[in-house]
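Tokens in:
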């Protein structure tokens, strides 16, 4: 799981609701996906969905 947006390098923590991934797990923030990528992955051409939020339990 990548910890930053691959486009703007914004931090995307495991519990961030902003993280989006494509089928190949390229990771971007939701604002880049919506406004720049238009829901199309620049690496593999796939579409995005919200990355599941992982809550850290210890
Ligand atoms: Zn971004
Ligand atoms: Zn991709």
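Residues out:
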């Amino acid at each position: 799981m990548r910890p930053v947006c691959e486009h703007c390098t914004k931090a995307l923590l495991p519990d961030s609701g902003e993280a989006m991934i494509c089928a190949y797990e390229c990771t971007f923030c939701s604002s880049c996906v919506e406004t720049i990528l238009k829901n199309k992955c620049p690496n593999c051409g796939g579409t995005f969905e919200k990355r599941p939020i992982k809550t850290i339990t210890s």
